[in-house]
Amino acid sequence: MSNPFARLFPGLTGRKGVIESVVPQRSFSDVILPPRTVRMLNEALTQVHSHSLIFEAWGLGERHPTGTALAFNFAGPSGTGKTICAEAIAHHLGKRLLLVRYSELESMWFGETPKNVAAIFRLATEEDAVLFFDEADAVAARRSRDVSHGMQRESNTTVNVMLQELERFNGVVIFATNLAANFDPAFERRIRTHVLFELPDVDEREQIWRVQLHERTPLADDVDFRDLAERYAVSGGDIRNAVLKAALAAAAVDGPDELKRIHHRHFVDAMEEVVSARTVMKQSLMEAPESQAETALSETRRMLDHMRTASAVSAAAAGAALLIAVIALIIVLT
Ligand SMILES: Nc1ncnc2c1ncn2[C@@H]1O[C@H](COP(=O)(O)OP(=O)(O)OP(=O)(O)O)[C@@H](O)[C@H]1O
Ligand SMILES: [Mg+2]
Fold first, then answer.
1. Is the Cβ atom of 242 under 6 angstroms away from ligand 1?
2. Domain covering 202-278: architecture
3. What is the DSSP-derived secondary structure letter of residue 9?
4. What is the atom index within ligand 1 of the atom nearest the CA of 76?
5. Using CA positions, which residue lies closest to atom 16 of ligand 1?
6. Domain 4-196 in CATH 2.160.10.10
7. Rounded to whole angstroms, how far apart are CA atoms 39 and 202?
8. Does the beta carbon of 234 sit less than 6 angstroms from any atom of ligand 1?
9. Alpha carbon 43 to chain centroid distance?
């Protein structure tokens, strides 16, 4: 089936596009989660089940057409399985997933965001799809009272439109956020359940390593997932990246393909690369404001020096003028 968004939003759709309509492939059996997250997800699924029973099978959706959306917030650090779980929920419900990368959208749609958010909800209704706003921190954030800025005004309008659409929508909406703290109270009221995604512990990491591989993936005998899980306290997303890197390295080894195996050292090297890439990113993020601050500081220093020189010059000039005045006075008096 073609992507219905292509019709409305050409250029924003397609694989890895800003908006995607996907038939979910991944299910809950592909995800390893801490027990607390599983409990919260189960609670969300029970609500979804009761919702379709009450509003679809029992017909109450036709009597009560507003205020029945099921909105969930998946909150947690990057790579902890929020996107994969949104897909698993759609899979579980046998529906398509409409994935909207919200932060990218907002920057591409400046001036048009509210209108397009409304169009997304309409399409989700037409498609009877689970709507997933990924990277949705901005949309959930508290509306600002300071609307002097065009951007701020638009954000506020978008949140208002989002709230209206949530009121009208009769399906499942999932928001994924990294920072749960700054929720707009009106938005918060419409969220049924916050599901917290946490970094996996050592046992969970060991299982994630295993679940990332396929039964056809050729592993050498020396592979020790417990060791990898103990050595690297990382997210599922990091493990995924390391698995793919390790597989690439093993596939690039000379020799016939049937003899190729992923060895323990491939996983270790790959994970070292993933971890150091993250450290470099973190450092450059941390250093950027510092270097900006340094630039600002040296700029200020330069200005101060300049002012000091200027005031020294004017002090000298004032001193000279005073001296001339005194000499003139002496001449007049004598
Ligand atoms: N709990 C998990 N169990 C199994 N695999 C996981 C888990 N968490 C992450 N992964 C793997 O990492 C990949 C990235 O995870 P996902 O995109 O769901 O993270 P996310 O929480 O949405 O991250 P982000 O906030 O960066 O969007 C998944 O496709 C999956 O392969
Ligand atoms: Mg995600």
1. no
2. Orthogonal Bundle (1.10)
3. S
4. 21
5. 81
6. no
7. 19
8. no
9. 24
Angle between helices 82-93 and 35-52 (to 10 degrees): 30
CA 183 centroid distance within chain: 15
* Integer Cα distance of 94 and 92 in angstroms: 6
**Residue that is written with structure tokens 């998946």 in the block:** 74
Structure confidence at residue 304 (pLDDT):
46
Question: How many angstroms separate the alpha carbon of residue 44 from the centre of ligand 1?
Answer: 19
Using alpha carbons only, how large is the chain's radius of gyration in Å?
A: 30
Provide the H-helix boundaries in the chain: 4-8, 35-52, 60-63, 82-93, 102-108, 113-127, 137-140, 150-168, 185-190, 202-211, 225-231, 236-251, 264-333
191 lines ligand 1 (CB under 6 A): no
250/244 Cα distance (integer angstroms): 10
The model carries a pTM of 0.77
Q: Which of 175, 162, 171 is nearest to 68 (CA)?
A: 171
In the chain, what are the domain boundaries? 4-196, 202-278
* CB distance 223 to 262 below 8 Å: yes
Residue 167's identity, in one-letter code, is: E
The encoded tokens of residue 303 equal 């200005």
Residue 76: both structure tokens together: 């947690």
Per-residue model confidence as pLDDT tens digits over 121-150: 999 999 999 999 998 887 777 666 666 666
Q: For the range 47-53, what are the long-range contacts, defined as Cβ-Cβ under 8 Å and sequence gap of 24 or more?
A: 47/192, 47/193, 48/89, 48/93, 48/172, 51/172, 52/93
Classify burial at 332, counting beta carbons within 10 Å of its beta carbon; exposed 0-12, middle 13-18, buried 19 or more: exposed
pLDDT, average across residues 270-282:
87
- Pairing outcome for strands 191-196 and 172-177: unpaired
